[in-house]
């Protein structure tokens, strides 16, 4: 226990059964059968800074060896770099250089679970990282697995729940036969392959073969292969948010994503599939695939190809097809494939129809190439706003009368893409934009004269469609012209003479009324007699040489108002101290009558 084997040049270190807590540091270990062997039940050993070269197996884990750390070693030119037999768990293998091994860089044979393989540089081996049978829940992270011979990362035979994340897996094609960057074969299920860069592995970028089901392939960049992502005889995989580009390296056929040979229920979603030869290729019993929300662009041969009659019940919807050789070819049985779902289809850049009713759906179907005669009946299509704004004028109402105060307006304007609203009251000479209901601009209203005013309401939308509705209202800014012809100002009246006569000129007359000596208001509509009680009170209260006020009013329905003041002098005797009172009164009375006649004539002449 707790041996430190340091700075030796030795041929083989063997950590025996149940050997724990050993440190193997900075040794040169070369030319052995096994470089470092951790035998059964070797726990918590640390192997670091060693140079392990030219051995049949660089580091070899026998069985049940857990929690060992292998880091910062150089494992080159061995048979295998690191070899796990079986039941080794929770080991951490990181920051090692593992290169030029004639067999696999890291090899896990049987039942090795929960190991952590990270930040290693693994190149020039046969297979970079190889999980053979029943190896579950391992994490393969941040490794650079490039320039290996057959595959970069390879899982086979029922390896479940492994995470392959953030690795660089490039140019693994030294032994040129069905190469793949990441290859899941034979019932490898529920693995996550995420955020990897997978470039130039000659044949396939990411390959699922023979019952490798329910894997999640997301956010990977996969480029420069014959087939970017190859789903073959495997079901229910979710391929989501990957960038699949430039898969064109084969002189024969290339595709971004290929789904073929008895597959069911794979989901291809939200991927960018750009500049491949064929974007997506379904053939040979590729069934019930859900292909949705992908951006499928610049694929030189075609966007998507459903090649034969045995491809059943595939759904293609909400994808964007732009600038492909052909956008889609459906050669399955008529009606077998759906090109829309739930009332929404795909976007086709070569769609020839319009969307006149602005529901975002093309008004005629899109015809899909191929023997199935399929159509997308619900193409995604927006050709701009074709529907004019709808304007309803609630207030003012037609012929409504307004005075000097500019009227309020209340309009309802509806449009999906409303841009601007404005009104004019002078036929467009001046326009006033508004964003909510309010009042007509007062300075503009002030320029109007009596009569009618036409208010035009306008609205446009972002598509340039302009609507207008107008309404004509009346305007009255002139007060009534009220002339009191009897009594005249300063008339001398007997107490019994309460008569009054008037002339009114007003087209929108509302009410006329008067008050006597500041008393209460009395309405009137025709000539007649002033209110007796008020008159008598005022008359009695006024001295023989005084006068009292009768104030007449008229207003119109527009709110204009006028008042006319008439002073009335009571016909009373002067106090008895004044001589000749009676005669004097007669004389004044006569002359007053004469004066009225003259004034009336003058009025008539006007
Ligand atoms: Ca439209
Ligand atoms: Ca439509
Ligand atoms: Ca519109
Ligand atoms: Ca008026």
Automatic annotation (TrEMBL):
NCBIfam families: para_beta_helix (TIGR03804). Residues 3-185, 242-353 form the Periplasmic copper-binding protein NosD beta helix domain. It comes from marine sediment metagenome. Keywords: Membrane, Repeat, Transmembrane, Transmembrane helix, Ubl conjugation pathway. Pathway: Protein modification; protein ubiquitination. Gene3D superfamilies: Single-stranded right-handed beta-helix, Pectin lyase-like. The chain crosses the membrane at residues 580-598. InterPro entries: NosD_dom, Para_beta_helix_rpt-2, PbH1, Pectin_lyas_fold, Pectin_lyase_fold/virulence, SCF-Subunits/Alg-Epimerases. This is Periplasmic copper-binding protein NosD beta helix domain-containing protein. SMART domains: PbH1.
């Amino acid at each position: 226990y707790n041996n430190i084997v340091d700075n030796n040049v030795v041929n083989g270190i063997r950590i025996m059964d149940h050997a724990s807590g050993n440190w193997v540091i900075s040794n040169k270990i070369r030319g052995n059968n096994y470089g470092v062997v951790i035998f059964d039940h070797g726990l918590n050993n640390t192997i670091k800074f060693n140079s392990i070269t030219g051995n049949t197996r660089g580091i070899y884990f026998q069985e049940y060896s857990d929690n060992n750390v292998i880091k910062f070693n150089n494992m080159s030119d061995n048979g295998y770099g690191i070899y796990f037999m079986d039941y080794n768990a929770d080991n951490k293998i990181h920051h090692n250089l593992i290169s030029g091994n004639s067999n696999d860089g890291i090899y896990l044979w049987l039942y090795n679970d929960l190991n952590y393989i990270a930040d290693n540089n693994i190149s020039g081996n046969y297979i970079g990282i190889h999980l053979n049978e029943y190896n579950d829940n391992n994490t393969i992270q941040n490794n650079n697995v490039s320039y290996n011979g057959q595959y970069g990362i390879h899982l086979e035979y029922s390896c479940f729940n492994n995470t392959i994340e953030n690795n660089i897996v490039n140019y693994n094609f030294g032994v040129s036969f069905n190469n793949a960057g990441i290859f899941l074969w034979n019932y490898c299920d529920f693995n996550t392959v995420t955020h990897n860069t997978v470039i130039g592995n000659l044949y396939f970028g990411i390959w699922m073969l023979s019952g490798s089901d329910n894997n999640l392939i997301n956010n990977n960049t996969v480029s420069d292969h014959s087939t970017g992502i190859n789903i073959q005889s495997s079901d229910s995989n979710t391929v989501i948010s990957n960038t699949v580009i430039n898969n064109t390296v084969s002189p024969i056929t290339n595709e971004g994503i290929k789904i073929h040979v008895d597959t069911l229920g794979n989901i291809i979603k939200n991927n960018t599939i750009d500049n491949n030869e064929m974007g997506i290729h379904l053939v040979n019993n590729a069934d019930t695939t859900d292909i949705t929300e992908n951006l499928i662009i610049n694929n030189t041969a075609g966007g998507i190809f459903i090649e034969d009659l045995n491809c059943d019940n595939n759904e293609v919807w909400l994808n964007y097809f732009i600038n492909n050789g052909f956008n889609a070819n459906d050669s399955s049985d008529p009606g077998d494939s759906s090109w829309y779902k739930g009332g929404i289809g795909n976007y086709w850049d070569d769609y020839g129809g319009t969307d006149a009713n602005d529901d975002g759906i093309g008004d005629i179907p899109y015809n899909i190439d191929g023997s199935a005669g399929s159509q997308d009946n619900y193409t995604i299509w927006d050709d701009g706003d074709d529907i004019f704004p709808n304007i309803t004028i609630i207030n003012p109402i037609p012929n409504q009368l307004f005075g000097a105060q500019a009227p309020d307006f209340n309009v309802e304007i509806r449009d999906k893409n409303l841009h601007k609203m404005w009104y004019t009251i002078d036929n467009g000479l001046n326009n006033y934009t508004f964003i909510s209901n309010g009042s007509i601009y007062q300075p503009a209203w002030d320029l109007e004269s009596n009569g009618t005013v036409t208010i035009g309401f306008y609205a446009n939308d972002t598509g340039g469609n302009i609507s207008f509705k107008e309404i004509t209202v009346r305007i009255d800014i002139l007060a009534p012209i009220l002339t009191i012809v009897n009594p005249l100002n300063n008339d001398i009246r007997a107490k019994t003479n309460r008569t009054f006569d008037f002339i009114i000129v007003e087209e929108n007359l509302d009410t006329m009324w008067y008050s006597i000596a500041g008393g209460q208001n009395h309405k009137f509509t025709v000539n007649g007699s002033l209110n007796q009680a008020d008159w008598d009170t005022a008359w009695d209260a006024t001295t023989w040489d005084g006068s009292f006020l009768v104030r007449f009013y008229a207003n119109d329905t527009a709110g204009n108002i006028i008042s006319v003041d008439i002073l009335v002098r009571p016909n009373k005797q002067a106090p008895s101290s004044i001589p000749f009172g009676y005669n004097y009164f007669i004389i004044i009375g006569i002359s007053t009558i004469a004066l009225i006649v003259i004034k009336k004539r003058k009025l008539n002449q006007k």
